Amino acid sequence: MPSYSGVWNLVSQYQAQGAGLWPPNYFPPPSGNVALFGGGGITASTAINTIQFINFSTTGDANDFGDLSVARNSLASCSSSTRGLFGGGRTAGNTQLNAIDYVTILTSGNATDFGDLTVARRSFSACSSATRGVFGGGYSGYINVIDYVTIASAGNATDFGDLLTGNLGPASCSSTTRGLFAGGETSGVFVNVIQYITIASAGNATDFGDLLSTNSVAAGCSSSTRGITAGGYNNTTLNVIQYVTIASTGNATDFGDLTAAAYYLSSTSNSTIGLFGGGLDSQSINVISSITIASTGNATDYGDLTSVVYTLAACSNAHGGL
């Protein structure tokens, strides 16, 4: 196999011949603004360890990045501009996990052990600033735990505070200062509450406003000013996309619709484009759709994940918290 520089020489020669941007069966490595999608399952009793990536500069399908340390579904992910973290989840055998893995986003390869969450759990979410990753809610019994890590330093998570109630399946997103957790399920009851934290401090979550309806296991992403949630489930599979202004408080506003109703999907952004990948309706899907966060309107098709999958988690090196 040619060296890394040799591969790029071949690519340059190919492009110089006017044959196209990339040679057949060649995929560019992670570069620039990158989205990562990790873990998940094809059915409720399966778990995968695949990490896949998309370069935001190139519309199209995801490519293989590497593997998580353990195959897991129902995990959560957050990131800085350099590192992506994947925490918690459960195995195909239904063992709840507390392990956190990390990857260097612009260097494809397998994940490395980072540390442990304070509580093993699944079906939760995470948000982050440039320095801190914050994990909230989940199921090991409905829990209200919020814990955090310093992304640049491997180690175990530290207690941050509590959500308003125990919460399975909140969607989350962040600005540079605030993290939002929206919707979820509390003791079997779907909720529409949006709550927020100040990422740089520690303490309990505060009420922000309400989603348009009750909604659990939706996906969240953001720019530095707008928070987005999409899809979800409340005894009906939802396709609604809604938004809030993160620096204020108040109820969500309708944004548009996903290309297909889905829950247990994942989302991340480069602060301009929001991507939504995978999910479940009557069956798991591999669709990636996109929106322009600063506008409103329906999502459009972006490409496909490498396989059908749901209960996965996503992060990027350019989201609204950075």
Question: What is the fold named in CATH at topology level of the largest domain?
Answer: Neuraminidase
CATH architectural category of the largest domain: 6 Propeller
* Bulk shape: globular
Spatial order of the strands forming the largest sheet: 3-2-1-24
Low-confidence stretches: 1-20
Helix content: under 10%
Largest sheet: 4 strands, antiparallel
Percentage of β-strand residues: 35-45%
How would you characterize this protein structure?
There is one protein chain. With 322 residues, the chain is mainly β. The protein has two domains: 1-30, no CATH class; 33-316, 6 Propeller (Neuraminidase). It is built from one helix and 24 strands. The strands form six sheets. Strands 3-2-1-24 form a four-stranded antiparallel sheet, with no helix packed on it. A four-stranded antiparallel sheet has the order 4-5-6-7, with no helix packed on it. Strands 8-9-10-11 form a four-stranded antiparallel sheet, with no helix packed on it. Strand 22 and strand 23 form a beta hairpin. It is globular.
Compact summary:
This protein has one helix at 4-16, and strands at residues 34-38, 48-55, 63-72, 76-79, 83-87, 99-104, 112-116, 125-128, 132-136, 145-150, 158-162, 171-174, 178-186, 189-198, 206-210, 219-222, 226-230, 240-245, 253-257, 266-269, 273-277, 287-292, 300-304, 313-316.
